[in-house]
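Here is one chain, start to finish.
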Amino acid sequence: MKGKYFLYAVIFIIFIALLEYPPRTPVVASGASPANTGWDGTSELVSILRNMGYQVYSVADWCSVADSLNMLKHPVILVFISPQERYTPEELACIGKVVKWSLNRFGRASLLVADEGPYTNPILGELNLSIYIDYAILLRSVTGDPYPIALLKVPGNGTYRLVLDYATRLIPGFNSVIAGRTLAGDVVAAYVVRGGFKAYVMSDGSVFINELISLSNSKYDYVGFAKALFRWLGPPGRYVVLVEAGKYPPPVTNLPNLIRNAVLSLGTGAISSLVIFLHPMVWFPILHGLIISADSYLRGLLTYSEFARIAALVAGTLFAALLIRATVSLGKPMRDEGLRPVEEVGVLVDTVVRRIVTTGKIRLDKDDLLALYDVVNDVLRRTLGKGLSDPEIAEVLARVSGADPERVRRYVDEMNRLRSKIVEGGLTPIVISWNRKVRKLLKESDELLRGLGMALSESEVEKALRKV
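Its structure:
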């Protein structure tokens, strides 16, 4: 009984600890990151581009790319979609270096900026583009909501009618061509062609997020627009696409995000989703809210004294039931555990001699492996002064017994790994049949110890093994 109540106490402590530490969720980035599989991510765009034949790489550090440009075999398309953090002067210089290198090496380079915020304006300045995103002006539709309809033109590939989401105003610069306006006439897109350099700038990144990509249809063809735009920036198979992935902070761990991430991971792993839903941080607040609601409801039906009497009665009943159960449990006779069938036992240890007592067919299991390990380890320590876990045992055993050193090393390694798997618990090494594994190691142990003048098995054991 003491052990049972101790277990209850441990479970309660673990429960409290879990409330302090949130569950580990699948890695889901935030914002328009290509690693974000949520509604506001751009993972679907990356999949579309790869299916079109582009080599697509997520870039978390532009300076690392700038330091290894010779690895790129094609001109580049740089993509920046709604980054959420500021770029340092060093990062801006590295971005400029990547573009200049592509122009010098291949004579071509392209840029796509789709951003309603302030963080890409320095990139446009670094590349000497006079286009500016006026992020302080939020555009609205003719009805006043922040979802204006825009007509976006792709040079040589038609015009697309798309709904924007919280777009801002774009100020086209010198030598730029206006490529998109809302129905109200506000500029939202422009492009520049300067020698072998192409740039397409939009003041809204929502047209590339997963939610709108998934809603693409003949009326609002977000997928068609993305494909046409990238074909203009550079044909598939001939360009490398580098997508910004480092300027998105990690997602905040709170209850709504935990539930959201659990739902998002249903498609990739039901077990990980189940772990999240079972975590107390997810279900305990809901349970607590139900208890509070029930308490308020009952207090509204009953007076305080009636409620207190009923609560005391319920608590007393539960306490009495637990006390009676504990008292009855103390008087219970202890049941004997049934012995395993004889054919499942199979191994006895008598000093250094391992006898197998058989009745019919015997099967060996992991307990027999531990017994074998202990016997061999004891023999080696008494004869060589080193056990199976000593680093030098394989070399010493091979030299003294005259056995092949590689074979001895494999034997020692397998014995230690299997013991570690049993004692510490682990997935590897994978054992299909403990019966065959233990028999194999039993024979190898006997052969090695015979080289030391020791016998692990007697003749009747050998007969039993041959019989099976």
